[in-house]
Structure formats: structure tokens, C-alpha cells
Amino acid sequence: MSKGLTINKARDALRSRKTSAVELTRDSISNIKKSDLNAFVTVDEKGALAAAAAADQAIKNSHAQPLTGIPLAIKDVVSTKGLRTTASSKILDNYIPPFDATVIEKLKAQNAVILGKTNLDEFAMGSSTENSAYGSTLNPADKGRVPGGSSGGSAAAVAGDLCVAALGSDTGGSIRQPASLCGIYGFKPTYGRVSRNGLLAMASSLDQIGPLTKTAVDAKILFEAISGYDELDSTSHKKPPVKARPIEGLRVGLPIEYFESDGLDNSVRRSVEKGIDALKKTGCVVKEINLPASPFALAVYYIIMPVEVASNLSRFDGIKYGSSVMGYAKTLQDVYVKTRSKYFGAEAKRRIVLGTYVSSAGYYDAYYGQAQKAREAIKKEFERVFREVDVIAGPTSPTPAFKLGEKVNDPLQMYLSDIYTVPVNLAGIPSISVPVEPVDGLPVGMQLTGRFDDDATILDLAVAYENNIGGNRG
Amino acid sequence: MAKSSISTQEVAQVASLAKLALEQNDLEKYAHQIDEILGYVGKVNNLVKDEHKVLLSSPANRDLRNVWREDEVHPSQVSSEDMLANAPELEGTHIKVPVILGGEDE
Q1: Which DSSP helix (H) or strand (E) runs through B24?
Q2: Which residues 119-178 of A have a C-beta within 8 angstroms of B?
Q3: Any idea what the CATH number is for the domain that residue A181 is in?
Q4: Which of A215, A355, A387, A452 has CA atoms 20 to 30 A from the CA of A143?
Q5: Residues of chain A with pLDDT under 70
Q6: B47 to A296: CB separation less than 8 angstroms, yes or no
């Protein structure tokens, strides 16, 4: 695949018959095989080539849709019918989903090509992709460093030109943080805008599926393809999306708390400030704002999320599907305990124990109850600020990509790399990470966050920003 | 302020509630790490307290409602045969499990 191939460029090449979907797919598969990034857990060469042939036929019959024949990668936490889906966990090592997630059905309906399933932190729990049972993914910008996580495989596959674009999932920053660390665009839509039917659940009040792409235009195309109401997801929105506001005169707020926080790397701050300058040139007006509750968000998140994790992961019991010690255990209880203890990785176990502890009888009020109140305060603070501004801009992650192994034994330090992304999930609002000037060759991201349901405005702003920096040559 | 120290015995107890058996060295590691995390997350109490009370008392202005649907049967896209294909052990169209009561662990 040619370097930097975008959805737009690939679509033009396909429609003008300069290339075929089969040719693009073969190129992608060959790049994946040659790559040492470990971005994929499973590559579906046969399925991808069959889909590509069908796409070429559709193009020939003038039935091409926006994603027809486009080679995509899917985070291995989204169910694909007949194609192994592991969540990068040994407990699902042999799991073949009997159905497609709604987002996959939508992609297949457009004759998009699914190349395979990308690596992640086990069950999307982590910020480096080092928690995968299938080895770490490497950052294409520096192979001694992490790609971020948990959608690190998707981010590395896009940045490393192993696919045109990818899907990830974002519970506390898992699309935006790896996009930032790999130098691409990563969009977390409004909670409820994209169906989670078929997404292996981590923390259901926070999880959202979204695109990782090389351009803002591509993020918009992929988002439009996967979004929409779905009766199979009870949190899905029926209301039509709101129209984008004009960029000229758009009010952009810069949270003082984000730019003055202790953990923010100075060089990252300078890069993001340059990004803000580029943003101003698109015609928006910038002002400082206060988000005093936001610095508490990570603490709130590390109570609410593990409680939901402990509940969601209780379904993995070795009885109905997945890895099991069945046949080696005498009692039902034995099957549960031995299966879970043997096949869950360290971070999954840590979060299950933490979540069970903070929601147990003696501690529920002190932790979970308080966290729910604090979450409400954070939501209301965003609502207050969005009466003054239309968009909030700031850093996506406090540092560029860190070295492999650097934070793996210090969970709290690892958690802090999501300090700017988690407030967004707690509030359910849309947010995109766009690349700004790299620091010593390492990519840096700027996060643009919008009102609840105002996905269109921040996508348009990202496109305007991209045009301004000359980023979208597709 | 929430209590922020957890013993290895508590970790083992909580783990067993979650159907996990942890090795002794894991118990010690987790106790230390979870203690550190609990120390950090304990700060939510500061937000809920004092100066931020005003945020909690202001009315929310959201057009969100709980979603209900009729309890009606719809045909599934997935056949029971496909659903059962992932089960570790089957007997006919039933998932096979070991004894529930009377085992040595009960």
C-alpha cells in the first residue's frame, strides 16, 4: 500500500480503476506480513480477498459506497462472525463469534474489506498495549516505544500504513491516546451515537466505538458509516444528530487546569499551543476557561470503571464459550475459579479485585456512591462551560510515547497518561485527537471536545484545522 | 475519608468473591498496588465535599430518558447451533457442566 493512503485517495483510485480492491488488499496483507509492529492478532487473508473481489464487482456495477473496497483493520474487541475475536485475552483465545457487531454489519453492507483484528490491552484495559496476551505492539515512530492503548494495534496499523483506517474503542481514552502517541486522528463519538452491539463490554457506561484514521476527513467518513440508531443497543440514540455550527466565530475554551497541570510535559505543552495557534487561523475565537472538577476525573474513573469491569467480566466462566478447564475440574465452582485464574491476565485480575472491593458492602458508600456523585459534578461542570464555549481544546496525553516496559509495573503511573481523556467519557461527550507538531520525532496530539451530540462540529473543526496545517492532501 | 489500606487477607477474600484464586506473591503485589490506587481515588471525597457542592445542587438540563421496550419475542439472527458451537462441552443441544452441589469444594 502506498504511504499515507487515505480513504479519499483510495476511493478515487478505485473509481478511476487505477487500482482494484483486490490489489489494495494484497498490498495491505503483504505489508502486514512484512511488518514487525505486531499490530494484528489475527489476519483474515481469505476473507479479506473475498470481500475485495465482491467490492470490485460492486464498483464495476456502479454500486460503490464510501467504503467499498477500502482495507480496514478492526480492534479485536469487536465481534466478527466466523473470525476469531480474542480481546487480546487467553480466556477468549479460541472464541469464534456467531454474529457480527452492528458496526461490522454496516461496514460489510458497504463492501468494505476487513483485513483482520488488531492487538489491544487485554479487554481494552491499559494505555500501552503491553497488557496483551499476544505481545506488545510497537510504535511505528519509534519501535522502542509503546503505541499507546488500548487501541494500540489499530493506531500502529494506521500510522504504519498496514491498513487505510481502523476501528477502535474508547472507554477512558483508548482511541484518542494511541492516536496521539502514533500521530494520527482518533475520534470518540458521543455516547449512544455508535451502536455497541457486539463490542465485548469493558465498562458499559463509558465504552464507545470510533475511528482511527490518517486524516480528519477520513474520521468523518468512517464515523458516518458506523453511526446511527440500533435497537440492539439500549443506549443508542434515536434523535437525529445536531447540525454542525459554522467554524467562523466558534468559541474554543482552553482549560487552565489542563495546561497548568504538573504532569504535563513542557514540550507537549508548546506543541499543543502551536496547534491552538493553527486553530485560531480557522476563524475560531479562543478563551481561557476553568474546569476545577476535571482533575478529580481520573479518581472517579478508577472507581466506576473497575466496578463495571468486575460485573462485565463475570460472564467469562468457562461454561458457555472461551477457554475453560472443563474436564479437569470436579465441581462447577472449580470450573469458574480455575478458568478465570488461569486465563485472565494481571491487569484484568487487578481491576476485577479493585472493582469488587470498592463496590462491596463495607466500602460501597465511601467509594462507589461518592464516585457517582462526583461523576455528576463533572458532567454538570462541562454543561456549565459549554454555555460559554462551543469546543474545549487541550493536550490529549501529558507525554509523548513512553518506552516499552517503562510503566508496566506501576499501574498508577500508567493510569495517569489518560488524565485528560477520561473526563470526556464520564460526561459521554464527543472528542477527537488531532496530530500537532512532533517532539524530537515523537508524535503529539491535541484534543478537541464538544457538547453532547455535537459530533459534527468538532469533526468539522478538525477538518478545518487539518486544511490549515496542510495535513489533508487526500 | 475512605479507608485506604487493604491487607493480603482482604485481597484474597475479595478475589474469592470474584471467583479468582491468587498466588501468595500476587496477593502481596496486588495489596500494595491496590492500596496505592485506593489512596489516589480517595480524593473523590474532596470533590463531593466543600467548594464543589454547588455543582451537585444545580439542576441538570438534559433531554435524556430511560429507554423501555415491549417484552416481545423477535426471531434471532443467530441460530442456537451457532451459539452452542463455542461451548467447551455439549450433550446433545445442552451445555454440559460438572456437579453443582456435593463437590469437595462446597
Answers
A1: helix B24-41
A2: none
A3: 3.90.1300.10
A4: A215
A5: 471-474
A6: yes
A380 touches B at CB < 8 Å:
yes
Of the listed ranges B3-12, B45-54, B91-100, the least confidently predicted one is: B45-54
- Check residue B47 and give its pLDDT: 81
What's phi and psi for A95, nearest 5 deg? Answer: -85, 125
Between CA A338 and CA A295 the distance in angstroms is 39
Task: Check CB contact of A299 with chain B, cutoff 8 Å.
Answer: yes
Are B21 and A341 inside 8 Å of each other by CB? yes
Q: Which pLDDT score is estimated for A80? A: 98
Domain encompassing residue A169: 7-244
User: Are A360 and B22 within 8 A, CB to CB?
Assistant: no
Q: How many domains in chain A?
A: 1
Mean pLDDT of B83-94: 93
Of A336, A341, A370, the CB nearest to B44: A370
A314 lies in some domain: no
Give the per-residue pLDDT at B99: 86
User: What is the structure's pLDDT at B58?
Assistant: 59
pLDDT at B69 > cutoff 60: yes
Annotated catalytic residue within A174, A227, A359, A433 = A174
Q: Nearest Cβ partner of A98 from B55, B82, B99? A: B82
B residues 43-102 closer than 8 Å to A (CB) = 43-48, 51-52, 55-56, 58, 60-63, 67, 69, 77-79, 82-83, 85-89, 95-100
Q: What pLDDT, on the 0 to 100 scale, is given for residue B55? A: 58
Question: HSE-up of B10 (CA within 13 Å, CB side)?
Answer: 17
Give residues with Cβ within 8 angstroms of A190, minimum separation 6.
Answer: A208, A237, A428, A429, A430, A452, A453, A454, A455
- Its pTM surpasses 0.90: yes
Beta pairing class for A165-169 and A209-213: antiparallel
What pLDDT score does B54 carry? 55
Whether A104 is in a domain gets the answer yes
Residue A33 maps to a domain: yes
Q: Is the pLDDT of residue B106 over 70?
A: no
Q: Indicate if the alpha-carbon torsion angle A396, B52, B46, A376 is positive or negative.
A: negative
Please give the average per-residue pLDDT across B57-61, as a whole number.
Answer: 59
Looking at the domain assignment, is residue A26 inside a domain? Answer: yes
Please state, in angstroms and rounded to a whole number, the distance separating the CA atoms of residues A148 and A131: 11
